[in-house]
Structure formats: structure tokens, C-alpha cells
Automatic annotation (TrEMBL):
Pfam families: NMT1_3. Keywords: Signal. Residues 1-27 form the signal peptide. The keyword Signal applies. This is Immunogenic protein.
Amino acid sequence: MKFFKNFRFLAATLIVGVAIGSSLAIAQTPAFFRIGTGGTAGTYYPIGGLIANAISGSGDKGVSGLVATAVSSNGSVANINAIQGGAMESGFSQSDVAYWAYSGTGLYEGKGKVEDLRLIATLYPETIHLVARKGAAIKSVADLKGKRVSLDEPGSGTIVDARIVLGAYGLTEKDIKAEYLKPGPAGDRLRDGALDAYFFVGGYPTGAISELATSSGISLVPITGPEADKLLADNSFFAKDIIPAGTYKDVGETPTISVAAQWVTSAKQPDDLVYNITKVMWNDATRTALDAGHAKGKLITLKNATTGLGIPLHPGAERFYKEAGVLK
């Protein structure tokens, strides 16, 4: 009888121990938070890496129990699709693409609305670069007619904006010899003389274009004039921009246009998690990392975080911005 009592006590102890162990394991299981970025040659990827490192919980920094990673992708559209499908917890998008997705307009016309799309922060201006081969005799967008031009890959935000820019100057893809390459391969083909120009949307300076300007020389094509003015009037998510002289070797000041880079997520992400991520995003340690880590990092500011929204803020992010006094 005593044996059975002891056996029952041991069994109960084991069950309690397993239960406690399981609870601890669950409690200690890290939360993974992927950030869809862009190609490794662009600006999204290094900025994503800086943010992922800042918000990952290790030591006395980041969000406790959070493991964040920057994931290379095809850009804005691919990131929004991944968030919608649950393959990513968050991602970067151009403000125009985010607006179209949420409203079911533009690129998303007839494809349904991505109603769960929410904003964590507006990050920095994304400048439209129209990079041309030296000697290609391309002085304006209109000069692209008949030229070999890469518009970036399907699924990227760049290709959408490239089509809008071409249209503003009376051109379509049928008027050019269109190719669909990421910025890295496009730059290689430009260097080899197999391509005349390519579009890139991202913060300046971008490493791939800097390397190209240094190694073989480039020109930047201005996006300006009455055509650009009408484009700006018709598309409120665009703004005037200037690439300063000397940003790229031997390239003078170039007037162009820009959209905003935004960090987006799903309404399904827990409010407390997004609140804590947003809080860490704007602390002093992250500020230092952004300032030191990339030229575009200095433009990522709390003051600009809630500008040019286009889509609703995630409730967790909104709570932080109200506490911080940047949102009423």
C-alpha cells in the first residue's frame, strides 16, 4: 500500500514537473519578427538589418524575447503579399504601393483590398533614380524611346513607379526595349554596355549606384518639367526631390521625385508587441545605430514617423506615438 502511495506521489510530482517545464519552455520561446526588405544591393536591406538588430532582445537592449531578422525580397509588393499571407510579420513598402494595397486601387485594382495592412512608421524619402550609361545620349525621360531600359522585377514598387514616369512623358513599355532586372544585375549590364538605363527607387546614396559611378561612370536623368509637374498633381504620394551634386562621383545636382519608405505590418500582430517594437525603434540606442549605420538613417526621425500615412497606424504604434506626443 505504501509503495502505491509513493508511486502516486512520484507520478504526480513528475506530471507537475513536466507541466512547469512546459510552461517555462512556452514562456521562453522567442517571438520571431521578420522584416521583408528588398534586394541586397538596395537601401531597404541594410536599413532593415539595422532595425532588426536594434529591436531584437539581447542583453539590456531590444524587445525582451524578440528575434527580429531582415529578409531579402523583391520589394514592396512582395512584402505586402508576404504579410497578407502570413509569411512575414512585417516589411518595407513604398507609400504609394501601401496605399494602393489598402484601398484596392492602382496596382491592386480588381485584386481586392489588403484591409489588414497597418503602419508602424514612415521611415525616409525614397528617391527615383533614372540611371543612364554614359554616352547613351539620354538627357530626359523622353529620350528613353527605343532604348534598352530595365524597370526592375515584377512585384517591386520600382516597376510601378517606372511605368507612371514613362506614362507622364507619353511612353509605354512598347516604346522602349524593356528588361526586368534587379538593380545589381541591371548595373552589371549597364557597365557592360548591354543596357542603356535603369530605374531604381530608394534612398541615396545607394551602394550599387555609387560603385557603378566610380567604376565606369554614369549619368542621372532628371525627372522634371511640365510632365513631372502634372505627374505630381495627379499622384499625391509623390513629392519633388533633389539628388545633391557629388552624391555619386562626377554627377551634378539632379532634380527628381520621391515617395516615402514605410514599415508596415498586419493588424493581426499583437498590440503590445508592436507597441514595444515601436518604443524601442525610437530609443537613444536605436537613434545612435541609425545615425552611424547608413547615410539614410539620419533621415529616419520620430518627427517624420507619422507623416504621409496613407494607411492606418497599427494600434500598438499609435499608442506609442500618442504617448510620445507626436500624435494627438
